[in-house]
């Protein structure tokens, strides 16, 4: 049976969960979870993900605020060059104590939990281990890094891309161009030659 603390993403929080208003700083490296991006833009499983920030206990749960950074691989969408660049994101996540604990605190808390759950709960709320002693940040890291991945990565903001006709790198050959009219006439000439060949048969 796997225990919560056996997860490489388990952060022990029992110490601060015992009482609201306590804080636990974190500055650690975790392995990247699987499933972040794809072969073109993503973070390799097991890559070093640095997490800095703090876990703070409040009455109904634990809040993590901090920063997540990971080496992402990507390809420039214009010139297809590989891009080596760490991706970073600021994170705020909430780890609520389970309902049985809230129920013990009185009926008032239950209503608050429902209000929180009504908002975008799936985005930034994560469960603690059943005994409340560990915050498992695997899903948090995955969600954060997936969201941080650029949809259209560029090697630089003004990348000129590749020539659409011959694939030449326009960053290296800024003066590169084709006589576009040539292309149209060439197609016409081909067509004409074909017609003439057919008539000739
Ligand atoms: Zn580029
Ligand atoms: Zn060209």
Automatic annotation (TrEMBL):
It comes from the Bacteria. Pfam families: YceD. This is DUF177 domain-containing protein.
